[in-house]
Amino acid sequence: MFDRLFPIPKHSLDYNGQLDSLRGVAVLLVILFHIYPKEFSFGYVGVDIFFVLSGYLITGIIISRIETGNFSFLEFYRNRIRRIFPAMIIVLLASMIAGYIFLFPKELELFSKHLKSSFLFYQNITLINEAGYWDEASIKKPLLHFWSLSIEEQFYLFWPLILVIFAKIDRSWTTKLIILFFVLFSISLIGIQDSFYGSLSRFWELSFGGLVYIYSKSDILKNRNFSIPAVIIFISGISLAYGNSEYSYIKTFFIVVATGILILSFNGTKNVIFDSKLLLFFGLISYPLYLWHYVIIGYLHIFGFDVPSIGIWIALISIFLSYLTYRFIEVYSRSQQSYYFAGALLLTAIFLVFVSHYIHKTRGLNQREHIKNITNANFDRAPMQDSNATSIIEKIVGKNTNISQMRANTKNLKEPFFMIIGDSHAYSSYDAIALEFKKTRYKVFCISNNSIPPLIASEDDINDKVDKKNKTILNIIESVKPKKVIWISRGEIYASGNKFLLNSNNKNNENYKIRNFYEHLEKTFRYFDKKNITLYFVLENPEMGFAPEDCLKRPLLNSPINLKCSIPKSLHLKRQEKFIYNVNKIASQYKNIKIIDTQNIFCDSNVCYAKKNGELLYFDDNHLNLAGAKLQATEIARQIFTNDK
């Protein structure tokens, strides 16, 4: 009965059901962690178990073929495609369709980037440049979990070649694999890449699995029953990870070694736990289950569901979809020996890569009929550069401007003008300010750089990239000689390094050494004051800490996730009040530095709003959209021109 419901495909190695049961344990740990992260905080080690298992099995497949003289690179990669691609294509295609229906353009644009990197197996590299694994932002990424599959596939690219080269030298595998393991482990400790997502930080785990395969062939272990101590060590390794919220090499090393010992105990002796049919079932469907479960969880997070409260349903739906994928997709595809079949799978994946690229290129298919009326007015972004500003700047610094955003509504700076400097917040505000200032005699010229405040600092305090960008801005200021400058940027994040979450440990803006922020802000204020340039320093608008998309109704869903679309004003003040106090204190020393506070147009006495009078004010959790920027521009103009009268 079990064999009919759960047929086991032909394997390249002698089949050992206990290994599949271990897969079952690994995937259950991961699922429990993703559904109940507080209660099962140790569950992330399931991925480390997968790495060791994969290294063990793939090394066994390659070496057994080499030793019989039957190894073929072409056959090896054909088999990898048969094994990996069918379920992956089904899951990614389903997630793509869901994204087309439900995601707003900005979300779909990011999702398509993840889709492409998942198909091409570099999702871990993509994620290195985004939020960390334990960060709040990561839970809304349905393809987050493809990072581990990417690392495995990258490992498979070079591992067969290494083993073939080793075989050319001689067939004594142990010494060479031990040396290679320690080389890879040492590389991971050096910290060349991100310790969690980095391929070079993880390859040692897979290579350790290869070492375990070599030792599993030793006659010393045959028919020796040490399953009980192996299970105890394994459980101890898992329990060490309880309560973890960051990557630990020591804990990872322990679970990797414990997994290796457990695999060595699967030597033909009985094991009450790992001979379980239930664990075998989860092991057989472990690959599609791993793929399906987090796509579902990621979308539910986006839709605002409380995942733990519906965890049982998530698990049941994931298991059902995984069984169907295993029974009717995987079993069939793994029985196909044809290279044409593997080629068709590869071409399908390549086609979907181009589809993903197209989605990204069209900014998340922002003209979809069912969604464009909801989103375009709220999330449209202006050009980052225009010919007016380019013409002005290139005359000063040449073609290589080294500036992220440059905008101007005039080419002639002999007319009275305001100069806007800052980070991406300045760029977000430019169009509204230019529109508002049309009511006056002033033109507007804006230059800004993403995530870099235009501070005057010494080369010792900032890296080369930031130093060059800020020197370029200083050069432009010296050349155009503005009389009035408006500074618009984020503030608190540069001063403290913290994201919106007040207890976050993630240091976001690594471009700038934040410990010196106030010192260099004072230098900057002193520079403008000595030059007799009036600097209007605009205090940051309230940061919301949630995606503004949550305030909009999604297609096919009944209501917005966030009906209030606001935060308590006390939360805004808790985050910003120290920054506001320090900036005002420094500014008070200089007559030409004027502070502009626009928070009252976004906040009343109790609440700060991301949506007012039915109109969304934010592009994301901290940037204003055009509607929000218009409110801000009106208040900036009022304070400037009222005070200047």
Description of the structure:
The chain has 645 residues and is of the alpha/beta class. It has two domains: 2-361, no CATH class; 377-644, Rossmann fold, CATH 3.40.50.1110. It is 56% helix and 6% strand. The chain contains 24 helices and ten strands. A six-stranded mixed sheet has the order 1-3-2-4-5-7, sandwiched between helices. A two-stranded antiparallel ribbon has the order 6-8. Strand 2 (417-422), helix 18 (424-437) and strand 3 form a beta-alpha-beta unit. Helix 2 crosses helix 12 (277-284), helix 9 packs parallel to helix 11 and helix 10 runs antiparallel to helix 11. The radius of gyration is 29 Å and the shape is elongated. Mean pLDDT is 89; it is low at 458-462 and 500-514.
Number of DSSP E strands: 10
What structural class should be given to the helix and strand makeup?
alpha/beta
Question: What is the average per-residue confidence, as pLDDT, rounded to a whole number?
Answer: 89
The value of Rg in angstroms is 29 Å
Strand order of the largest sheet: 1-3-2-4-5-7
**What would you call the shape?**
elongated
**Low-confidence residue ranges:** 458-462, 500-514
Bin the helical content. 55-70%
Tell me the count of domains. Answer: 2
N-to-C CA distance: 89 Å
**Number of helices in the DSSP assignment:** 24
> What's the main sheet like?
6 strands, mixed
> Which percent band covers the strand fraction?
5-15%
GO biological process, one term: lipopolysaccharide biosynthetic process
Pfam families: Acyl_transf_3, SGNH
Enzyme class: transferase
Membrane topology: Multi-pass membrane protein
